[in-house]
Specification:
Strand content: under 5%
Distance between the termini: 57 Å
Shape: flat
Order of helices and strands: HHHHHHEHHHHEH
């Protein structure tokens, strides 16, 4: 490497890498998928921190204690769990960084993909700071809820980027009519409300995240839980109605199959939710419910993204949605 190369790498490392490496489309897709998977993993491990009472395992931030950057042996297993979750943030950053580098290096260059990667990066950084605030304010339930909602935003952006790696950059073309699109947007809005109320259920419930006295939301937990259940049934009903409408209008297979997948995920999530409610919220089931919440949100977004196609005009070949639509037409 010459001195000029070194200077170029320092000035703009992404451009330097892009000039010397062209990833395959599969590599870009895998990088985007890795970022999505890690965004779900960090939600699950964050839930594990809370459910094991390790939320204040590291009592301060950004250090673990006032005198130590890492957990010490005196802090026990709670310190290990909390500090381990903090370290996973770096793994998440690495996955998002790989997605950004792969998107920036793809030929031809797609600015939309790179922007989605950077959006994930800034959400991760914002949530890391918010996570520190959560610790500093002693697991205040409102900050904990905001922490989870920002993680849901990260999952949304990561899901969109993963989908966009499998599409072209031409203008989107709808695969269904406006009435169906509006029904799906109602479904998305109901799902957002369901997730938001779910954070209130957690904030008012018994799992405070630490063994000490931690502030809870001053709400009747039973009533909030019932509201959460009602919203869940609304989402299930909208999903079933959407599947019925898609069948009636002979829609392409992609939105139909993703709606079916969402319906099955919702049923599984509902079973877990009711079982955990009637068994006094065992930690394992609550953790599975949190994982199911992330998977449900991804499934809802995939239904929304399946309503249009973006063929790759550069290659002239149909994208995944187009191919599935062709199969549906022949059937």
């Amino acid at each position: 490497m010459t001195r000029a190369d070194a200077m170029a790498a320092v000035r703009n490392p992404l451009a330097f890498i892009a000039a010397r490496w062209t990833p395959t489309p599969r590599t870009v897709r895998r990088a985007a998928l890795a970022a999505l998977v890690m965004s779900v993993v960090i939600v699950v491990t964050g839930g594990a921190v809370r459910l094991t009472g390790s939320g204040l395992g590291c009592p301060t931030w950004p250090k673990c204690t006032d005198d130590s950057l890492t957990a010490t042996s005196e802090m026990g297993v709670h310190g290990v769990i909390e500090f381990g979750n903090r370290m996973l943030t770096y793994v998440l950053c690495a996955a998002v960084g790989w997605a950004i580098i792969a998107a920036r290096s793809e030929k031809p260059y797609r600015r939309s993909l790179t922007r989605l990667g950077w959006a994930q990066f800034w959400i991760v950084m914002s949530n890391a700071v918010l996570g520190g605030i959560v610790v500093l304010v002693g697991l205040n339930p409102y900050t904990v809820a905001a922490h989870f909602l920002l993680s849901s935003a990260l999952i949304a952006v990561a899901t969109v980027m993963w989908q966009r790696t499998r599409e072209g950059d031409s203008a989107p073309r709808p695969l269904v009519g406006r009435a169906v699109q509006q029904l799906v947007w109602f479904l998305v809005a109901a799902s957002v409300l369901l997730i938001a109320v779910g954070t209130v259920v957690t904030g008012a419930g018994p799992h405070a995240g630490d063994s000490s006295e931690v502030e809870r939301m001053p709400l009747d937990w039973e009533n909030v839980t019932k509201l959460h259940a009602v919203l869940a049934w609304i989402v299930v009903t909208l999903t079933f109605a959407l599947w019925f409408v898609l069948k009636a209008v002979d829609a392409p297979k992609s939105p139909l199959n993703r709606t079916r997948d969402l319906f099955l995920i919702l049923l599984s999530q509902g079973v877990i939710g009711y079982v955990q409610y009637f068994t006094d919220l065992p930690e394992l089931l609550v953790g599975l419910h949190m994982f199911g919440s992330a998977v449900t949100w991804i499934a809802v977004l995939r239904v929304l993204l399946a309503l249009r196609e973006r063929p790759d005009d550069e290659i002239g070949a149909p994208g995944p949605a187009t191919a599935e639509a062709t199969v549906g037409t022949r059937a």
